[in-house]
Amino acid sequence: MAALRYAGLDDTDSEDELPPGWEERTTKDGWVYYANHTEEKTQWEHPKTGKRKRVAGDLPYGWEQETDENGQVFFVDHINKRTTYLDPRLAFTVDDNPTKPTTRQRYDGSTTAMEILQGRDFTGKVVVVTGANSGIGFETAKSFALHGAHVILACRNMARANEAVSRILEEWHKAKVEAMTLDLALLRSVQHFAEAFKAKNVSLHVLVCNAAAFALPWSLTKDGLETTFQVNHLGHFYLVQLLQDVLCRSAPARVIVVSSESHRFTDINDSSGKLDFGRLSPSKNDYWAMLAYNRSKLCNVLFSNELHRRLSPRGVTSNAVHPGNMMYSSIHRNWWVYTLLFTLARPFTKSMVSDCPVGGGHC
Question: Which GO terms describe its molecular function (predicted)?
Answer without folding.
Answer: enzyme binding; oxidoreductase activity
